[in-house]
């Protein structure tokens, strides 16, 4: 090969996926449309069935978005139509600009010293492809039809009788995860017809996992060398009850209605007549642990399973028959099952939280309206029509998505306030909006179908909802979170505000070989567990308890894990920054108060301006800083409370592990010792995380104390100023008293003078040539004056 030959430029559409697909459906999605037919034809029968099933699901979900609009206005076009139109407009603009761009690219390639020639050659290939684009809708439609999977996948449009292909089922479209670990071999791929993918990324449809009674891999196994881990993606009590029933091979989960009737009548079901599911999910370990259930009329975020770690005797295994002799064999020695409920801290994007809150609010409103209609019609004796209306409303709700369910990013607005101006920006914005709806469709359906079931769904909750769980609306207080204010920037359109959430981990360890877990997973915690399992050494997992500790560790350290490159907020750093800013405001308040006091000391205390007094004694700024400091302390205390509960749970779990040592052979003590060391290390990490939050609280509490001391000093300064003002008023009173004395003396001195002057000025017969005598005039003057004086004194000294 010639050393001076230029390297071959990359194809214009060349792309290498950094994360290779793990199953046939992922491979199908990652392939280009023109290559999917060839890829599909090379798949096995099982893989083809998986692709067909997923394509049916995509077709069903696509019907939801065909009428969805960005604006509540009736004349606005659906989002899918807007996306097609913006794509067409962008392609027209790209074709118009491609000629000039191609000429510019050729000009740059003609230069002898072009150092980025491979990139220019790739751009030239792209521009040539752009010029070949068709702008006619008919040709685009023809190409779409050529690439449509219905042209090369047989039976795609035909209805399927499979249990997981019923779109009307509330569990349609959800997947569970399966991880199998064998002692001595490590992680293995479960060879089961219902599971697809490779270890540790195997998935299974929830409908098949929970309701395919004959074939579900959840069935109880007596293989003690195989550790099985099943993960469900939501805290759904109905799924848990059905999963436990499938494990024990029982037809159904808990009969809540029957249990309620028995409890209301004061009866108890005999223990020997309880099913294994009822024994494991007995009231004190299941519904009795629930707070804010269906019948409490509390908001959905009040629901929580109280933290607990308990040991339950395992259900006895069914007796087996020897395969050769045909004789009955003794049942396997009973073990203990472990039940664990633990809260942990997580996070969520604020806009997504607002959209999900709107969905919950709308679902709750529909439930209340349905309940009110049932009560009204039941009183009128038209129960049959009520059932018809309820079923009709349920079908309509499943067949349509309300406009404001996914579009509204704000609590009150129906549409975003920002729109892109360029054609490419509009096209990408519409595509992002549609992707957002597709990404959240599963959560919407989960809330709508399971929020108010007999065994309810437990939604996620914010710190404020966890603390004030009886409050109906905490949106305003959620936006006062330290993490929200630390990740939201008013002038930065690219900022993504986030909030701290509280999730729940529900875990069951059955027969010491099977692990079940329910928890929400928006931050790829389960993905982190699967990645850890993919790289773990064989000797690191000796029992199901090691896997349990790995899962608890991943949940507990979500907000403290700085190694994940996702959008999770750096909670500790954000709180530290907020505390530092509050301390700076405190210092500024002290300095301002000191300057005001100095100015007042340089002036005459009795002549200090009123404006300066009002400014120095105003506590509005200090009060806002104090409230901000108190909010930080409250949030830190809530998070510490959650870690305290985790420590309590892990302490109980460690006691369970130590109790296993009494029945473990000496050959297995090394494995148990390593498990105990892992548990002790995890417990130490939890305490360290709690102590880190406690240190932040101490720093903020110190600042809060100093702000309170400043307010006390301002109050004392106000008292001093009031005392000085009192002295000033007393001095003024003395001066006023002296003035009154002078006025009185002058009045007394001039009173007789004025009397005699007036008397000698009278026209009396005795004094001058008057006609009236002086005695008569005195009588006319004295008696009316005396009467008026007596009346005035009576009114003045009256007690009424």
TrEMBL record:
<keyword id="KW-0472">Membrane</keyword>
<keyword id="KW-1133">Transmembrane helix</keyword>
<feature type="transmembrane region" description="Helical">
    <location>
        <begin position="740"/>
        <end position="762"/>
    </location>
</feature>
<dbReference type="InterPro" id="IPR002523">
    <property type="entry name" value="MgTranspt_CorA/ZnTranspt_ZntB"/>
</dbReference>
<protein>
    <recommendedName>
        <fullName>Cora-domain-containing protein</fullName>
    </recommendedName>
</protein>
<dbReference type="GO" id="GO:0016020">
    <property type="term" value="C:membrane"/>
</dbReference>
<dbReference type="GO" id="GO:0046873">
    <property type="term" value="F:metal ion transmembrane transporter activity"/>
</dbReference>
<dbReference type="InterPro" id="IPR045863">
    <property type="entry name" value="CorA_TM1_TM2"/>
</dbReference>
<feature type="coiled-coil region">
    <location>
        <begin position="679"/>
        <end position="713"/>
    </location>
</feature>
<dbReference type="Pfam" id="PF01544">
    <property type="entry name" value="CorA"/>
</dbReference>
<keyword id="KW-0812">Transmembrane</keyword>
<feature type="transmembrane region" description="Helical">
    <location>
        <begin position="774"/>
        <end position="797"/>
    </location>
</feature>
<feature type="region of interest" description="Disordered">
    <location>
        <begin position="132"/>
        <end position="167"/>
    </location>
</feature>
<keyword id="KW-0175">Coiled coil</keyword>
<dbReference type="InterPro" id="IPR050829">
    <property type="entry name" value="CorA_MIT"/>
</dbReference>
């Amino acid at each position: 090969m010639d050393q001076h030959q230029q390297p071959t430029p990359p194809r214009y559409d060349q792309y290498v996926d950094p994360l290779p697909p793990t199953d046939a459906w992922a491979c199908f999605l990652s392939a280009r449309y023109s290559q999917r037919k060839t890829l599909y034809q090379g798949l096995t029968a099982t893989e083809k069935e998986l692709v067909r099933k997923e394509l049916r699901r995509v077709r069903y979900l696509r019907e939801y978005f065909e009428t969805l609009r960005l604006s509540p206005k009736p004349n606005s076009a659906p989002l899918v139509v807007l996306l097609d139109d913006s794509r067409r407009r962008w392609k027209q603009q790209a074709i118009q600009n491609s000629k000039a761009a191609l000429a510019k690219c050729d000009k740059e390639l003609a230069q002898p010293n072009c150092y980025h020639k491979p990139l220019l050659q790739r751009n030239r290939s792209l521009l040539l492809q752009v010029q070949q684009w068709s702008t006619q809708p008919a040709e685009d439609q023809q190409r779409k039809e050529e690439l449509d999977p219905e042209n090369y996948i047989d039976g795609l449009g035909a209805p399927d009788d499979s249990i997981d292909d019923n779109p009307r089922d509330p569990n349609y479209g959800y997947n569970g995860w399966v991880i199998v670990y064998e002692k001595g071999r490590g992680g293995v791929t479960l060879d089961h017809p219902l599971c697809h993918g490779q270890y540790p990324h195997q998935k299974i449809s929830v409908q098949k996992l929970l309701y395919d009674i004959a074939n579900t891999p959840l069935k109880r196994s007596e293989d003690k060398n195989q550790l099985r881990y099943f993960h469900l993606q939501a805290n759904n009590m109905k799924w848990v009850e059905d999963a436990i029933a499938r494990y024990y091979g029982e037809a159904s989960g808990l009969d809540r209605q029957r249990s309620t009737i028995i409890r209301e009548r004061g009866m108890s079901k005999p223990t020997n007549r309880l099913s294994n599911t009822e024994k494991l999910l007995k009231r004190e370990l299941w519904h009795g642990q629930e707070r804010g259930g269906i019948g409490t009329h509390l908001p959905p975020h009040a629901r929580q399973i109280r933290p607990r770690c308990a040991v339950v005797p395992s259900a006895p295994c069914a007796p087996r028959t020897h395969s050769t002799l045909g004789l009955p064999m003794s049942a396997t020695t009973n073990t203990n099952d472990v039940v664990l409920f633990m809260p942990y801290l997580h996070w969520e994007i604020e806009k997504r939280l607002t959209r999900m809150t709107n969905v919950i609010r709308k679902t709750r409103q529909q439930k209340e309206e349905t309940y009110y209609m049932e009560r009204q019609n039941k009183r009128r004796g038209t129960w049959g029509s009520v059932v018809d209306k309820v079923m009709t409303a349920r079908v309509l709700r499943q067949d349509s998505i309300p406009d404001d369910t996914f579009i509204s990013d704000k609590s009150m607005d129906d549409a975003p306030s920002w729109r892109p101006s360029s054609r490419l920006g509009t096209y990408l914005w519409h595509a992002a909006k549609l992707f957002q709806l597709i990404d959240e469709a599963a959560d919407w359906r989960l809330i709508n179908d399971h929020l108010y079931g007999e065994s309810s769904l437990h939604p996620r909750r914010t710190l404020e909802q966890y603390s004030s769980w009886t409050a109906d609306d905490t949106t305003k207080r959620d936006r006062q979170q330290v993490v929200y204010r630390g990740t939201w920037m008013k002038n930065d359109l690219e900022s993504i505000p986030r909030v701290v959430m509280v999730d729940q981990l529900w875990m069951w360890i059955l027969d010491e070989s099977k692990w079940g877990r329910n928890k929400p997973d928006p931050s790829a915690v389960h993905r982190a567990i699967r990645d850890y399992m993919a790289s773990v050494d064989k000797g690191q997992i000796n029992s199901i308890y090691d896997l349990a500790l790995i899962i608890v560790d991943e949940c507990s350290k979500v907000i403290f894990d700085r190694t994940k490159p996702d959008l999770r907020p750096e909670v500790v750093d954000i709180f530290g920054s907020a505390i530092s800013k509050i301390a700076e405001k405190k210092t500024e308040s002290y300095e301002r108060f000191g300057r005001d006091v100095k100015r007042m000391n340089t002036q005459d205390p009795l002549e200090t301006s009123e404006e300066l007094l009002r400014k120095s004694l105003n506590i509005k700024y200090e009060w806002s800083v104090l409230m901000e400091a108190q909010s930080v302390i409250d949030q830190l205390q809530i998070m510490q409370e959650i870690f305290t509960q985790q420590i309590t749970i892990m302490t109980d779990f460690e006691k369970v592990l130590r109790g296993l040592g009494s029945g473990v052979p000496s050959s297995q003590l090394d494995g148990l010792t390593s498990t105990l060391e892992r548990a002790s290390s995890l417990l130490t990490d939890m305490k360290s995380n709690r102590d880190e939050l406690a240190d932040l609280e101490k720093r903020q509490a110190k600042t809060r104390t100093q702000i309170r001391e400043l307010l006390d000093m301002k109050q004392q300064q106000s008292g001093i100023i009031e005392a000085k003002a009192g002295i000033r008023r007393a001095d003024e009173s003395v001066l006023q008293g002296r003035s009154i004395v002078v006025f009185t003396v002058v009045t007394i001195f001039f009173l007789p003078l004025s009397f005699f002057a007036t008397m000698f000025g009278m026209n009396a017969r005795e004094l001058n040539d008057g006609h009236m005598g002086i005695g008569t005039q005195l009588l006319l003057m004295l008696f009316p004056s005396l009467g008026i004086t007596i009346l005035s004194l009576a009114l003045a000294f009256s007690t009424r």
